[in-house]
From TrEMBL, chain A:
Compartments where located: Cell membrane
Major subcellular location class: membrane
Gene: cbiQ
Segments crossing the lipid bilayer: 53-70, 79-96, 116-142
Any single Pfam family the record assigns to this protein: CbiQ
UniProt topology in membrane: Multi-pass membrane protein
Protein name: Cobalt ECF transporter T component CbiQ
Coiled coil region boundaries: none
N-terminal signal peptide: none
NCBIfam families for the chain: ECF_T_CbiQ
Keyword Protein biosynthesis found: no
Organism, as annotated: Pelotalea chapellei
TrEMBL record, chain B:
Cross-referenced InterPro entries: AAA+_ATPase, ABC_transporter-like_ATP-bd, ABC_transporter-like_CS, ABC_transpr_CbiO/EcfA_su, ECF_ABC_transporter_ATP-bd, P-loop_NTPase
Tagged with keyword Transport: yes
Name of this protein: Energy-coupling factor ABC transporter ATP-binding protein
Family the UniProt entry places it in: Belongs to the ABC transporter superfamily.
GO MF, any single term: ATP binding
Keywords: ATP-binding, Nucleotide-binding, Transport
PANTHER family linked: ENERGY-COUPLING FACTOR TRANSPORTER ATP-BINDING PROTEIN ECFA1, HEAVY METAL TRANSPORTER
Residues annotated as domain ABC transporter: 6-236
Length: 270, 270
């Protein structure tokens, strides 16, 4: 449970980064959300064997991290946390897809390995972009931006509640698990049985809490609508930010920049 | 000012599992009174409070807030009149920032944005929490959360303030701060608490609940001096009314003046 507590603390740190002040932080959240969306769509729209064309996209996270003064190692560690999931997703590609796709010197690389590498690179780019978005905007502002961009309010409210109570619930889970561990005296306790009962209790407690929160909302005149008042301004700099990055992403998507660069270099030095 | 009156007549509540939480409770609280509802665990205090703003429906009996009988149709009015502060502030603070949380009620009342901003600032200043306005609730300490929770209710300008265990879990300093705050309110105030010293200081009248019935209702000092009654209801005198723990001599009833002998015998010089 210690690791979960740590993960939550890390999440808080990511959110606190959003309080910094930089040219990127000051932009309207909608601009940042839009650019991140275009970025992610461009990345995931590539074919499964595409690898070289993905690398130029690293310019986006690199520039934003530099401009917004985010800690790059911290972001890298956050992305690394997701690596096991990515590896599971791509694990069987090299096994099933053995057709040789390219040769690196005398070394033959199968299509499976290329698609595996492509999955890893794409995950790093998309997950990294999402973390950076939260780091320069803050989760709440991202939700509100999504809502203003047309996402139904129900989803925005769900996300906000999830974010608000994830801290409370992980603390509760951490306490329950600590209590179990202390009485298990270093052994397994009752093993999976005690864990399933613990999870059941947590679920019931969550339910009760949800009821109390609903009660508190009703007590303050809640009728189903959420009114959040935010001053935001989508001005010239936002427009430039969106247009500039989107044009670059779409250009990179349509033209293989790595190949262009390669041709340029080989053309210059035949 | 008849809308500040709370009248409960023959209130009975049976939960769906058959537990009789309230057998027969009747009382009348008038404008500006500060009333403590005390009793053992399971005496029905929380159930009673949940009736006062209509979250629970009486099995039988009725409740009037001012001239309005509590019913489905009058709920919005009642909830505006009766402000309810819950025991766990984490249940009450569900919005992304302190400002949003305090503004939640006024927005639901349909106030204009500028008015809401002014109201939120006023109320946060009143509870001494204006410096926290942009913070997310999970970054607040227990005492801060409690004060903000009170602000969320005050922002709706209720006529009657109902609080469930307001001093629960606070350190001595935060408890004193909160008591000073509550003492200054001009509202009709109703608390439940096991902190009998707080009840002694803040309430001129006490209602004792025992097994779902009103066992006693009268001036605070009179009730706290009735040791037989208190013992019957699994209660005891507030600590400040009990004898000095060192020499056993009594204190002035209801005062916090310490016993001089205890200072002498413990080596303190007065």
């Amino acid at each position: 449970m210690d690791s979960i507590n740590k993960a939550v603390l890390d999440l808080k740190r990511l959110d606190l980064l959003a309080n910094n002040d930089s040219s990127i932080h000051r932009l309207d959240a909608r601009a940042k959300v839009l650019v991140t969306c275009v970025f992610i769509i461009c990345i995931v729209s590539y074919g499964r064997y595409e690898l070289a064309a993905l690398f130029p996209f690293f310019i986006f996270p690199a520039v934003i991290i530099a401009l917004a003064d985010l800690p790059p190692l911290f972001i890298a560690r956050k992305i690394a946390l997701l690596c096991p999931f990515v590896l599971v997703v791509g694990m069987f590609n090299p096994v099933f897809d053995r057709e040789v796709l390219l040769h690196l010197g005398s070394f033959a690389v199968s299509g499976g390995w290329v698609s595996f590498a492509s999955i890893v690179v794409r995950s790093i780019l998309t997950v990294g972009a999402a973390f950076i978005l939260v780091g320069v905007t803050g989760f709440t502002a991202v939700c509100q931006a999504l809502e203003r961009l047309g996402m139904p309010q129900v989803f925005a409210v769900q996300l906000l509640f999830l974010y608000r109570y994830i801290f409370v619930l992980t603390e509760e889970a951490g306490r329950a698990s600590r209590a179990r561990e202390l009485r298990a005296c270093g052994k397994k306790g009752l093993g999976i049985r005690s864990f399933s009962s613990l999870i059941g209790h947590l679920l019931l407690r969550t339910w009760q809490r949800a009821e109390r929160i609903h009660m508190a909302m009703l007590a303050r005149g809640f009728t189903g609508a959420f009114h959040a008042h935010r001053q935001s301004h989508f001005g010239k700099s936002e427009l430039m930010f969106v247009l500039g990055w989107s044009t670059l992403f779409i250009f990179l998507r349509l033209q293989n920049a790595s190949q262009l660069l390669g041709k340029l270099v080989t053309g210059l030095f035949p | 000012m008849s809308h500040h009156i709370v009248e409960v007549k023959n209130l009975r509540h049976v939960y769906s599992d058959g537990t009789v939480a309230l057998k027969d409770a009747s009382f009348r609280i008038t404008h500006g009174e500060s009333v403590g509802i005390i009793g053992a665990n399971g005496a029905g205090k929380s159930t009673l409070l949940l009736h006062l703003n209509g979250y629970l429906e009486p099995t039988s009996g009725n409740i009037r807030i001012g001239d309005i009988p509590l019913s489905k149709g009058t709920l919005p009015d009642i909830r505006r009149t009766v402000g309810m502060v819950f025991q766990d502030p984490d249940d009450q603070l569900f919005m992304p920032t302190v400002f949003d949380d305090v503004a939640f009620g006024p927005f639901n009342l349909g106030m204009a944005v500028a008015d809401v901003e002014q109201r939120v600032t006023e109320v946060l200043e009143l509870v001494g929490a204006n410096h926290l306005r942009d913070k997310p609730p999970y970054n607040l300490s227990g005492g801060e959360k409690k004060r903000v929770a009170i602000a969320t209710v005050l922002s709706m300008s209720p006529d009657i303030l109902v609080m469930d265990e307001p001093t629960n879990g606070l350190d001595p300093f935060a408890r004193r701060q909160l008591m000073a705050l509550i003492r200054d309110f001009k509202h009709t105030r109703i608390f439940t608490s096991h902190d009998l010293d707080m009840v002694l200081e803040l309430c001129e009248r006490v209602i004792v609940l025992h097994e779902g019935e009103v066992w006693a209702d009268g001036p605070t000092l009179e009730i706290f001096n009735n040791e037989k009654l208190l013992a019957e209801c699994r209660l005891e005198k507030p600590l400040s009314m009990q004898g000095c723990p060192i020499c056993g001599s009594g204190r002035l009833a209801g005062s916090a003046i310490p016993c001089p002998k205890s200072y002498a015998s413990s080596g303190f010089d007065s």
